[in-house]
Amino acid sequence: MKVISLNVNGLRSAASKGLAAWLNEQEADVICLQEIRIQDHQVPFEIQALTQYQHYYQPAQKKGYSGVGILTKIKPLSIQYGLNGPDPEGRYLAIDLGSVVIASLYLPSGSSGPERQACKFTFMAELLPVFAKMAQEDKPYILCGDWNIAHTKMDIKNWQSNQKNSGFLPEERQWLSDILEKYAFLDAFRYLYPDKIEYSWWSNRANAYTNNVGWRIDYQIISAVLGAKLVNIKTPRTPKFSDHAPVIGEYDL
Q1: Catalytic residue among 92, 106, 141, 199
Q2: Active site residue 252
Q3: By CB distance 3.0 to 4.6 Å, which of 49, 157, 169, 183 could disulfide with 135?
């Protein structure tokens, strides 16, 4: 099973850069999208034309903001919109495929100020009991998304100067460690490549992309039992559809 995750930073923008043709070439089984920034009726024609997939979207109430989506070739047994009921910011969407549950997740960013950082911490707190529940279920999970947290020093180019910045705060990193350690989940990329340096997001300032001054904040977090099923995972820098790179995982399922 091939699973792609990508923060598109606006689905219409990414579609204008050839995203649909690239997705068609990839022949993935499931595609998880974040920051789609559209309502259901605004899905670009090129994306709608990917008719080999069933399309599910969880937009934010605010127009042009946030939102997640999943495209799947496998018909879901059920679909979950939001973590615990209504999801006004469009942060979580999950599909149950029988042998595995796959989710598209978009954690808030706290970089715009204290108010948004507080929202991020609230969302993180709400996620902890969700992970505890997932750990008790029979089915494994693949949680794809933009987590807006660089976990370790290997996951960010300039770690020393970012220790007080949202996305690399000690409490954010500890939260991610707790999820992995307490609830038996794996960072799929780091599990397969413990020492490899790859980034998934680059600032639009100071030629960060050209100089590869990046952050790895996009993950496929998987139930530990799926570690033995993980065949490959990569974060290709090109082609470039947004300020994020896709995360492409392959599983023997």
Answers
A1: 106
A2: no
A3: 183
